[in-house]
Design brief:
By secondary structure, the protein is of the alpha/beta class. The chain folds into 2 domains: 5-248, Rossmann fold (3-Layer(aba) Sandwich); 269-395, TPP-binding domain (Rossmann fold), CATH 3.40.50.1220. The chain has helices at 13-21, 33-41, 49-59, 96-110, 153-166, 181-192, 290-299, 308-312, 343-347, 365-369, 378-395, and strands at 67-70, 73-76, 82-85, 115-122, 139-144, 171-175, 196-203, 208-212, 217-221, 226-229, 242-243, 246-248, 279-283, 303-306, 333-337, 354-359, 372-375. The strands form 3 sheets. The chain has a 9-stranded mixed sheet with strand order 9-8-7-10-6-3-4-5-12, sandwiched between helices. Strands 14-13-15-16-17 form a 5-stranded parallel sheet. Strands 1-2-11 form a 3-stranded mixed sheet, with no helix packed on it. Helix 9 links the parallel strand 15 (333-337) and strand 16. Helix 5 (153-166) packs across helix 6 (181-192) and helix 7 (290-299) runs parallel beside helix 11. The longest helix has 18 residues, at 378-395. It binds flavin-adenine dinucleotide (FAD). Flavin-adenine dinucleotide (FAD) binds at residues 284-286, 307-310, 321-326, 338-340, 342, 344-345, 348, 358-361, 364, 377-379. Residues 284-286, 307-310, 321-326, 338-340, 342, 344-345, 348, 358-361, 364, 377-379 line the site of flavin-adenine dinucleotide (FAD).
Length: 396
Amino acid sequence: MSEHQDGIRRRNPRRERDGRRTSSVVEPAPSVQAAQSEAAAGAAPRIDPRLRRRERQAAEPASTGVSVRAGDVTRIDQSSHYVLMVPDLERGRLSPADRITLGAARMLADADGGAVVLALMLASDEMLADDAGRAGVDRVVELRDAAFAAYDPQARAAAAVAIAEMISARHIVLSETRSQGGDLARRIAAALGGGLAVGVVRMTNASVTSVIDAGRREAIGPAPRVVAIDTAIFPAASAIQAREARPLAPPPVTLRSAIRDEGLVPMDPRTLPLAEAELVLSAGDGVTDWDAFHALAAALPAAEAGSRVVCDAGHLPRSRQVGASGTIVSAQCYIAAGISGSPQHLHGIADCRTVIAVNTDLHAAMVARAELAIIADAQAVMPALTKLVEERRHAR
Ligand SMILES: Cc1cc2nc3c(=O)[nH]c(=O)nc-3n(C[C@H](O)[C@H](O)[C@H](O)COP(=O)(O)OP(=O)(O)OC[C@H]3O[C@@H](n4cnc5c(N)ncnc54)[C@H](O)[C@@H]3O)c2cc1C
């Protein structure tokens, strides 16, 4: 059986054992072409001195063997190829969409002994707040530039292309997000060639499936060079093993851009794809006052979601369904109003940091899952919360 059929990662102990015994091709050394061409052009690469140290570490001879497990961490000493993952990053953190996309990158890498490389583009004073290794990253290439402090897809695409060329990435994987990844994927594909699949909703060892033609048809084919994942639909990996996140020296690249960032325009979070939302207000069959539900979502503001029952009943569109057969969310805060907490629904919120349950039943499974529970009628709690939020906002 395929290890990743239907996008669900299943462990295959025999294959893992065999993998540890087998020797593999030598890890491709980063190309020095970019450095030479920069030097020839007289451009001054901006390289953090810490990266010099990392460069020396990266240049150390690789030991033999493909994949080693040390404690809980799986280490790939020699990879057959690289899959580059370019994250959106939100305030220095991997976004929920980034984590789903990392799962897709892992599938492409794991199919035949490859390694996942994270392209970390940070502003001068920015730090990655997450543990890249725990998120499933084998290698990290860190580039620092003032251009990354602003919205600058030209600079980001140029940096991603430089990294992809340095490591001869077989695939470059991004989230099909409106904030960053969707735009970047198209720019990178145009610069590199080798094809582009957008709106990818499923993946197996042999193919990727994209939704095309305004959602009316699906296109299935082998994974092209650049793959943009529709993180609202693509299934999140059920378990990601911790990896080494070994630093690789960055390519020397000088970034120039014609784009001027005029600042962010606030977006209506109610229309945000669920997988990207940080605050979600979700309704179950216990919600009957839909005006109060929409008013609270607007006041917070929060992305709207619901259980399968309310989507089946047509109160919310199918794209808003949370759960095993809907979208997996990993919001900072998930407010579940009138949702019982069936196993299928709980599967969809396993990664949410804080769950608040509003339910009349003290013994509901959602109440047991929640960090905070309000045992009351959702129809009374929702307008009360809306009033509170608006009063606090006006008081500021
Ligand atoms: C193959 C399969 C896949 C599925 N996939 C999904 C999925 O992806 N997502 C999903 O959600 N479900 C899924 N389901 C359905 C799932 O099993 C449950 O039926 C569903 O989650 C229940 O939705 P609910 O909690 O809104 O409704 P109910 O189970 O009816 O719960 C309603 C809750 O509201 C509370 N309540 C009632 N009145 C009030 C009130 N006035 N104020 C506050 N609380 C109140 C009740 O105490 C109860 O806890 C799937 C089922 C199958 C078989």
